[in-house]
Amino acid sequence: MSDVIPENSTGTAVPTAPRPLVGVSLKLYFGLAQTRAWLAEVAALGEVLAGLPRPVDLFVLPSFPALADARELLAGTGVGYGAQDVHWAERGAWTGEVSAGMLAETGARYVEVGHAERRRHFGETDQVVAAKTRAATTAGLIPVICAGERHAADPATAAEEALTQVRAALTGAAPGSEVIVAYEPVWAIGADAPAPAGHVRAVATALRDALRAHDVRGRLIYGGTAGPGTYTELAGAVDGLFLGRLAHDTAGLRTVLDEIARS
C-alpha cells in the first residue's frame, strides 16, 4: 500500500511510493513436513523484517494443506500468507476446488491468479482469471495477478501481451480493492538469468499505466529468475520481487529483503 505524507507546500496530501513487497510461491516443490520446516525458518525472519532500515512487506504462498501451518507459525511475525490458486465460485458442486471465502477463513490475505503454468497446463483463460480476481477481491483477498509474454520479444510486443492479460484480470477487481501485478515473462521463468532490466522497465511502465486506469490500489512486482541484484537493477520501475526456488534457502530470501530495504 502507498503511504501518505500529510501535506505538501500547497497543503495537499501527497502519496509516496508504494511500500516494497516480496512474495514467494513454493509451487509443488515441498512436502508438508518440509513446508512446515521452511515456514518456521521464515517465521524467524520476522525479527529481520522488524530491523530493516525501511519496511518491506513479505508474503508466502504454500500449498493448500499447509495453510493451517502458515497460520500457526507466522502469527505475530508480520509475514503474510496465502494460496497459489482459488476457484471463482463461492460454493457449489465444484469437486476439489477451494473458494475465496474459505481461504479468507484460514487467515490468508493473498492469492495467486493467472500463473503461466495454470494457463498452459489447465487451460485458464483471461476470462477465468478475471472471475478468480473478482472472487478474491470480493472476499477481501489481495490477488497476485501474474502476467507476461510467452516468448522473448521486443518490449512493445511484450507489453501488449502482458497488458491484455492484466486489463482483462482487472475487469474483475472490486472497485477500490488492493491488487498486486506480478510481471513474469514466461521465457524467463526458471532461466539462467532474469529478463534484461531495460526490457522489464519498459513493460513495467505500461503495466503501471494500466493499474492507474482502474479503480484499484496496485503494486507491481517482478518475477522470472529474480534474485540478489535484480531489485537494484529495477529500482524505481517495480515495487518488489516475486521469488521462486531462490527463496527455498531462507538465507537467499534474507539477502533479497536486505537489498530491497537498503536500495
From TrEMBL:
It comes from the Bacteria. It is found in: Cytoplasm. The keyword Cytoplasm applies. Transmembrane segments: none annotated. Keywords: Cytoplasm, Gluconeogenesis, Glycolysis, Isomerase. Pfam families: TIM (PF00121). GO terms for molecular function: isomerase activity. It catalyses: D-glyceraldehyde 3-phosphate = dihydroxyacetone phosphate. InterPro entries: Aldolase_TIM, TIM_sf, Triosephosphate_isomerase. Pathway: Carbohydrate biosynthesis; gluconeogenesis; Carbohydrate degradation; glycolysis; D-glyceraldehyde 3-phosphate from glycerone phosphate: step 1/1. The keyword DNA repair does not apply. It is an enzyme of class 5 (isomerase). Homodimer. Belongs to the triosephosphate isomerase family. This is Triosephosphate isomerase.
